Automatic annotation (TrEMBL):
Pfam families in alphabetical order: SSB
Name listed for the protein in its UniProt record: Single-stranded DNA-binding protein
Bias (Low complexity) ranges: 114-137
UniProt keywords, alphabetically: DNA-binding
Recorded GO MF terms: single-stranded DNA binding
Start and end residues of each stretch annotated as Disordered: 103-166
Organism of this sequence: Rhodanobacter denitrificans
PROSITE patterns per record: SSB (PS50935)
InterPro entries with a match to the protein in the record: NA-bd_OB-fold, Primosome_PriB/ssb
DNA-binding recorded as keyword: yes
Amino acid sequence: MDINTHTIQGRLAAVPRVLRNERGAIARLRVVTSYRYQDRDNNWQQRDTGHNVIVRGDLVSLVESLRVGDGIFVIGFAEDHEYTDASGVQRVERQLVAKTVGRPLAAAPSSKRPATPQEATPPTTPSRRVAPSAAPAKEAVRQPPAVSTEGDCFDEMDEIIKRGAQ
């Protein structure tokens, strides 16, 4: 069995081009991923790679709300697209056909635009809501667990889960 699944997480490099017709909607995206590494001289280098992404159907409406610089992740499959350019040369372009598109959970707002109210404030959870008649209670500030070098990381996870269940 062959597997042709690709996952990328990067930033939108250009405004999505959307085409709608009687058969449905299709969007073409350009997503840039970055890779940082240290060279032999211990200098940090960055390598950017551009990916052509095709989005079809209901996923197009999600893509239309994105702006240049926004974080995006795509899960899909690679497909080769053959065409002849203006000078008559036969070309092959590899593109990612999206099956799943979304925003990374930890994506910070783009530095090129101000944060929207939804991005700037965390959502309220039912446990944080206070009845209008009740006096507001002080919330305990959660401290991150101390990092220990002994034992394994699952012991720490068990403690966090137990504290959360109480």
